[in-house]
Amino acid sequence: MPVKLKTDPAYYTSLGGAYIGDSRQFLEQLEDDSVNLVVTSPPFALQRQKEYGNLDQHEYIDWFLEFGRLVRRKLRDDGSFVVDFGGAYMKGVPARSLYNFRVLIRMVDELGFHLAEDFYWFNPSKLPSPIEWVNKRKLRVKDSVNTVWWFSKSEWPKSDVTKVLAPYSDRMKKLIEDPDKFYTPKVRPSGHDIGKGFAKDNGGAIPSNLLQIPNSESGGQYLSGCKNVGTKSHPARFPAKLPEFFIRMLTDPDDLVVDIFSGSNTTGQVAEAEGRRWLSFEVLPEYVAASAFRFVDKGMPLDRMRAIYDRILKGDSVDIEASQQQVSLLLQ
């Protein structure tokens, strides 16, 4: 059953609900020690104001820690808080801001989080930026890596890396098929004694903390839905593979996953697909209304998609699954 708050969701499924408003208010409504994972990508502390909202770097850290303090209260003892932070430059100079690292240190030193592990998301499809230092003056290379901090409430958060094993390389597949032909067990110069067990098939390779995930979505139900109803898509979506990695590694089916800056609700869509309960919080109604397109069936008539979008903007609470059943009956 989905978690119910005092406020009605903008839309909901059998596993979760999307809410419009300040996530601090919704977090207060949750029971303490009830959330398994919070995974999110907040507005970054950029120098140039974005339409989805962001603060000056000096204000940003204190602002974000307000959310961190609440999240820690709501997490279970083995729960995790995963946050994607984009890099930024200091105002007017080609020198990097340290805001994301300052957030990390203060979350640990002041709020009592633990840094379970630091991840780095490499987006090979990211456009060159910042324009001034990369494109115009050509003083810096393009910024293609985000820092992703995996915070935990205790030193022993729930985690299972076997759920996110990477495919073996072709060379490793050959080694597993015929170890004697491709590999000789021996002590390496580093002192590591690597034996025959190294050639065992474990179902995949242990992934690294460098996540190479292109952010180049060009189709899909969400974007086509936005186009069909004439609304703008969220300008800073993260790819589904990013929350998927952490949802699979850090939670089990029926666990509760929350996104406190949900934007187009990629996290909720992935949690739904993975059989996790979910909650998403977003302050801008247009983004929430459009994010409902992620949960409707492909081929839903345009007038029905428009009706769902308009009802959410009017303040109605939409049952996505009931809406889809109505469409199915009409099409029979």
Proper CATH architecture of the largest domain? 3-Layer(aba) Sandwich
Structural class: alpha/beta
Instruction: Detail the poorly predicted runs.
Output: 46-54
- Give the SSE order as H and E letters: EEHEHEHEHEHHEEEHHEHEHHEH
SSE layout and pairings?
Blueprint: E1 11-12, E2 16-20, H1 23-29, E3 35-40, H2 57-74, E4 75-85, H3 99-109, E5 114-122, H4 131-136, E6 145-152, H5 170-177, H6 179-182, E7 186-187, E8 193-194, E9 210-212, H7 220-229, H8 241-250, E10 256-259, H9 266-273, E11 277-282, H10 285-291, H11 302-314, E12 318-319, H12 320-331
Parallel strand pairs: 1-12, 2-11, 3-4, 3-10, 5-9, 10-11
Antiparallel strand pairs: 1-2, 4-6, 5-6, 7-8
Explain briefly what this protein structure is.
This protein has 332 residues and is an alpha/beta fold.
